[in-house]
Amino acid sequence: MSVTPTAPPPPADRRGLLIILSSPSGAGKSTLSRRLRAWDDSIRFSISATTRPPRPGEADGVDYHFVTRAAFEGQVAMGDMLEHAEVFGNLYGSPRAPVETAIDSGCDILFDVDWQGGQQIKESPLSAQVVSIFLLPPSMAELEARLRARGQDSDAVIRDRMRKSRDEISHWAEYDYVLVNDDLEACEARLRSILSAERLRRLRQPYLAGHVQRLNVEFEDRALT
Ligand code: ADP
Ligand code: 5GP
To answer: Is the whole-model pTM more than 0.70?
Structure first.
């Protein structure tokens, strides 16, 4: 009896990754997240809840879920947040349900969270699926220039973000990967390489055990003929 070798199923037969992207504000998280999603539209984006007011151009349910402090605290009390933290005086958190739906259907989900959020996700029961990436600016002068070029914040807010960037950067060594976002194209290419390799880790390809079993059956079948 001959056994027809079966090709491994498509890579979707795996649990998705939780991709954590952190950096000081202005280093390029949103820009690179958008580019990653344009590269692979199966990557979901974790839409955070926040108590901060929307900036001009931001839409509820797209950029953030804009909620009151009472509503936010209610969700935390119900255990509906995978992680949450106070950043720049506002509460931010990642709703748990969309994350579980995404990874159970084999989709990777990307988080733009600060170091506190990254730490909590890494300590959660989903830690085996986590890939954490920290972005550094090429220089502090360039970070400030990017915050100004973005044109979304007042001088006072920019000064505050620059002051807090030192604290965020101090957590760089807690991440799996650290990239200097100098040239945008080059940084995007490095991010794609990280994701491509992480998706191929043995433990993230559960169908491999079945494939090897089929190879062994075929081997024994051929040895007998
Ligand atoms: P974050 O989400 O980390 O706060 P953004 O993605 O909003 O940062 O980037 C801040 C500004 O810097 C934006 O105007 C963006 O276009 C610009 N930017 C991002 N990456 C680069 C880069 N590699 N080179 C030049 N400008 C960049
Ligand atoms: P911004 O107000 O500029 O959109 O975000 C400010 C900071 O909050 C950024 O460092 C961003 O990564 C972080 N942040 C956004 N969403 C979340 C979240 O859900 N959880 C945590 N911990 N941080 C978040």
So the answer is: yes
